[in-house]
Amino acid sequence: MIYSVVGHYSLILGLCIGLILVYFSIQNFRNFNQLDNKILSFSFLQLFFVVVSFFALVISFIISDFSNETVFNNSHTTKPLFYKISGTWGNHEGSLLLWLLVLTLFIFIFLLRTKNQPIKYKILTLVFQQVIIIGFFLFLILTSNPFNYLFPVPNEGLGLNPILQDPALAIHPPILYLGYVGSSIIFSSALAATTLKMVSTNWAIHIKKWVLISWIFLTLGILLGSIWAYYELGWGGFWFWDPVENVSLMPWLALTTLLHCILVLERKETLTSWVIILSIATFTLSMCGTFLVRSGILNSVHTFANDPERGLFILIFLFTLIFLSLFIFSVFHKPSQNNQANFFWLSKETSILINNWFMMYFLSVVLIGTVYPIFLDVISSQKISVGPPFYHKLIIPFLIPFLLMMAIGPKLKWIKSDLKDKIYLFSLLVISVLISFFIVKNFNANVLVNTILISAALYLFFITLRDFFNKKYKNLAQNIAHFGFSLLILSILFNNLFSSEIITNLKVGETYNGSKTKIVFESINQKKQKNYNSIIANFRITNSEGINNNLSPELRIYNQPKITTSEADIKTTLMKDKFIVINLVQNQDYFNVRYQVKPFMLWIWLSVMIISLGGLISLLKKRT
Amino acid sequence: MKTFKTLIIIFHLLFFNNLYANENSERNEITKNLRCLICQGQSVYDSDSDFANSMKILVDKKLNEGLSDKEIYSYFKEKYGDWILYDPGLNKNTYLLWLLPILIFLFGGAIIVKSFIFKK
């Protein structure tokens, strides 16, 4: 009770400080000799109030204070402490409070850490960021207050959706939000720089750090979500082109494009308009993501809370921000006349432009695929589904030249280049094609497409691998990231080609005898946990080489809410995952058993980590 | 370098020969492209709900009757509407869906060539 009051008033105070900050900033902007100390203190105070409010909610969850509506809706006394805490952001209100926390945290760090930049620029960035922050304060207080009071106080809460009670999903939102919300700084700072006409190489070097920070967190956030989907949703898939997954991929694509584009701007003053547009687009796409997920217009495995009124608020807020940024862009941005935007066809600049071109294409495929069904439904009330086949058909053909460009592009020099080692580059291509053909020809499925795809990915793999030995530490970050990407594509392709699966119905004690695999359903145990009962099935699986594996998938019957989940048992080795999951079949005494062998699963996760490691190295690298 | 490459080749050949093709692969391909209508964004293949299980049996039955995958898709489309297919066919409702990304790609290429490479 007391915590809710503290939390609620902290939010209101935070909002007031936002308004005060805007006022002081405008004052300070007029006589800008030095940054007013008041601005820094008030920013800190705002952060402090949001932190207080956030922890008030966390404590309400820990002590199971059911006079708080959010806690009542999303918690239960029998839940383990860890999931009581993670329940704080496992719901709409709490997750928005987390948004706000990251927003205020980032602007405070930005003000502290940004040196050698004009005062006017810092102040203006703060103002734009405050516009976003105030918007979110209003959104929180008006439509989704996390501290609503319930009377009479219920004795017990409704509990958290069991599939959210999972360690990966407990840290997934904070990491993802650091990425999403980190892009707000890029947005505010790009608008500030545009207004002050200081979009330059100097600014590019400064903002690149923030781009990298958001990019790393966004990459890791998406990875965690994907890992969670893999073992928790119980179908062994890790990416389904589901709208909510797409919505996190879109800012990632925009951010990756921006990251490459900034590399050009770092060196010469060109592509300025494009960099600004991308900065605006990244944050807008993050906001769109929030809108689509929170408004409930998406039909998705990951949508857990929805409410049309909130959707309307975010939509209006979103359009305000887009309008504001377009206004600033068109009024203040004048591309300079001495803009030497004339690139030689064979140069690093051109290859980066080609990267941008393809990335924008991928982005448009994902964006159109995600929103088109919604528009069609609204306009003609015809429902269509856009699923994996659509994305595969439109993306895979374009992935091939993209991978080849990823291998060649970094080898080119700035301004004007000549391709060296032509024979070497060509012979590697031939080798890649040969290897791919040998791998694929043992399988009947689609030899041509798979050979070409795997060759392109292998080519990138070989070239980047060779560069580790060749170039020593030059361009290490880039090389690691591209190497990781080739590994990712290879792992996904091999995983797709060589996965195998057995689906069968078994009773306890029965044996499934396949051509290569024997599955023995040995026994069943029951266990009682604090907030669920579990049924553990023990299987012994013998493969063609006579090697035994014991796997024990689980069914959990949660007490509150009453939901049954199946927990897969996964045996991960370097080369393949063995994945087994069971399901109850209604009114039958057997279980539905699904056993999958999935090669290179671990490498999919590892390669994404390698990609983000590339970003991290670039972030830590001292500029020479 | 050369030995390294040979090693990789040998490794791949050895490793992948052990693997085997899927049983029921035709049914799996089809059910992956059908939406489980009672689930939240899962395909029939991925879902273990009663609806999905009966759909799987139905697909098996249709395959046994000798229907091609196209005939099976149109059977489901007639019965449940476009919503059930994850692969939206090209028709008057979806021209924009399929063509807009390609147009954007061509348009982007034109901009790059015009304004950066052949700019006089």
Structural features, described:
The complex is a heterodimer of chains A (624) and B (120). Helices cover 62% and strands 11% of the residues of chain A. In chain A, helix 5 (92-113) packs across helix 7. In chain A, 49% of the residues are buried. Chain A contains 17 helices and ten strands. Chain A has 624 residues and is an alpha+beta fold. Chain A folds into three domains: 1-165, no CATH class; 166-179 and 186-334 and 349-406, no CATH class; 500-602, no CATH class. In chain A, strands 2, 3, 4, 5, 6 and 7 form a six-stranded antiparallel β-sheet that branches. Chain A has a four-stranded antiparallel β-sheet with strand order 1-10-9-8, with helices on one face. Chain B is mainly α and 120 residues long. Chain B has two domains: 23-87, Cytochrome C biogenesis protein (Helicase, Ruva Protein, domain 3, Orthogonal Bundle), CATH 1.10.8.640; 89-120. Chain B has five helices and no strands. Residues 9-23 of chain B have low confidence and may be disordered.
Query: Which fold does the CATH topology of the largest domain in chain B refer to?
Result: Helicase, Ruva Protein, domain 3
Oligomeric form of this entry?
Answer: heterodimer
- The number of domains of chain A: 3
Structural class of chain B: mainly alpha
Give the C-alpha Rg of chain A: 26 Å
Residue windows where pLDDT falls under 50 for at least 5 positions of chain A: none
